[in-house]
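F.,

This is the one I mentioned.
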């Protein structure tokens, strides 16, 4: 019997330098895809997977994130007075229950593994999820829900996985596959950001994890890995050496790398086209852009 996964860690301490100057005053996670901040997509995905406790690992300059999750009574009552019920509902859907969110500061940028470790006391001895909000995943069933379902069958640790071009493996954690069972693979190792020539496969880790609490013990050792950082990948790989399993789940859904500008733009187009209220106008515009480009060629 596996324990239920009800806690999720959201590492949001990064400086977001790839999005300067915007991120000079706006946390990257507040940047919007259409009209919802990146973090809202991550929260909705976690909620759909049954997560009840949301742990944010933040840093200086991220207070806009805390404000975002506060109730906004003045705004709510003004929308109510004006009879703007639809907007009111949209606003209320972002409200979080009292006590459901905790914020922990990562005082030094020592890597993703360190950020996760900062939440160890709130995790205790329970399995937990980690969601990297930069990776936005759309699909019929929330990616984390797919992972929770898989976890209930397999136990162990599970990471979201996706094939990437060989030329891109050095940007990811990469799985060393033991048994490929189709949508789930078991692993015999994991390497953070390998050179393309040394990568054990092109099956990359995408930013969703369900982890055993013992991963925190490995992080306690504060070992530096790729890029001189304390890597979550290394701590997960350590699980294998202690006889616990690590699986990769090839999730169903489309993943957008919103940590890169091109990925963010692609997500904006995809989410814009997916919206009933925008689709017609937006796709007509995209058609126009294409025909103008073709005419210019
Ligand atoms: C992090 C992880 C990496 C994973 C990636 C997914 O890297 O360290 O293992 O493949 O997220 O997006 P980052 O993109 O933060 O450098």
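My design for it:
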């Amino acid at each position: 019997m596996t324990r239920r996964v009800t806690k999720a860690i959201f590492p949001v301490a990064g400086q977001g330098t790839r999005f300067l100057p915007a991120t000079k005053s706006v946390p990257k996670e507040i940047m919007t895809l259409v009209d919802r901040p990146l973090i809202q997509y991550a929260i909705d995905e976690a909620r759909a997977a049954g997560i009840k406790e949301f742990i944010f690992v933040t840093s200086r300059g991220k207070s806009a994130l805390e404000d975002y999750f506060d109730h906004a009574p003045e705004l709510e009552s003004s929308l109510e007075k004006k009879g703007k019920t639809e907007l009111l509902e949209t606003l209320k859907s972002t409200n979080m229950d009292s006590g459901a969110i905790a914020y922990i500061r990562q005082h030094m940028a020592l890597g993703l593994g360190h950020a996760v470790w900062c939440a160890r006391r709130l995790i205790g001895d329970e399995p937990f999820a980690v969601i990297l909000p930069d990776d936005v995943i759309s699909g019929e069933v929330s990616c984390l829900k797919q992972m929770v379902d898989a976890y209930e069958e397999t136990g162990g640790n599970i990471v979201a996985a996706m094939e990437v071009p060989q030329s891109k493996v050095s940007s990811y954690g990469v799985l060393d596959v033991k048994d490929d069972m189709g949508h789930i693979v078991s692993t015999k190792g994991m390497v953070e950001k390998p050179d393309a020539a040394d990568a054990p496969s092109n099956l990359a880790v995408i930013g969703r994890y369900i982890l055993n609490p013992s991963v925190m013990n490995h992080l306690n050792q504060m070992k530096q890995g790729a890029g001189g950082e304390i890597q979550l990948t290394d701590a997960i790989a350590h699980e294998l050496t202690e006889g616990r399993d690590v699986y990769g789940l090839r999730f169903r859904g489309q993943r957008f790398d919103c940590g890169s500008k091109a990925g963010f733009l692609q997500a904006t187009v995809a989410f814009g086209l997916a919206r009933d209220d925008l689709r017609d106008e937006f796709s007509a515009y995209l058609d126009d852009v294409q025909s103008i480009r073709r005419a210019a060629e």
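The chain has one domain: 7-259.

Talk soon.
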